[in-house]
Amino acid sequence: MFGSIGFPELALIFLVVILLFGPEKLPEFAKFFGKTIRTIRETVDEAKSTIKKELDEVDVTKDIRAFGEELDPYRTEDKNDESSQ
After folding, report:
1. Which pLDDT does position 36 carry in this prediction?
2. Could you give the count of Cα atoms lying within 13 Å of 45 in the half-sphere of its Cβ?
3. Model-level pTM?
4. How many CA atoms within 13 Å lie on the side-chain side of 71?
5. How high is the pLDDT of residue 82?
6. Cα–Cα distance measured from residue 56 to residue 62, given in angstroms and rounded to the nearest whole number
7. Domain chopping of the chain, boundaries
8. Would you give the distance in Å from CA 19 to the centre of its chain?
9. Could you give the CA distance from residue 85 to residue 53 in angstroms, rounded to a whole number?
């Protein structure tokens, strides 16, 4: 979850938080931090699902394949013209 942050880095962050907020405010800070992380995660998940839904509705690949199939007869005629010259 924390990527490349190891135990020494987490201990240093914890120490700085205790020094800044004090042990009395630490539970409030942890609760606020947890809510913030949850809100960010929910927002990112919602954005991902919205983007996926929109891409599924548009589905450009079907349109590209259909367009390519429409162009296939012209492509074979171009190849035949080049080989006859």
Report:
1. 93
2. 6
3. 0.49
4. 8
5. 56
6. 11
7. 23-84
8. 35
9. 50
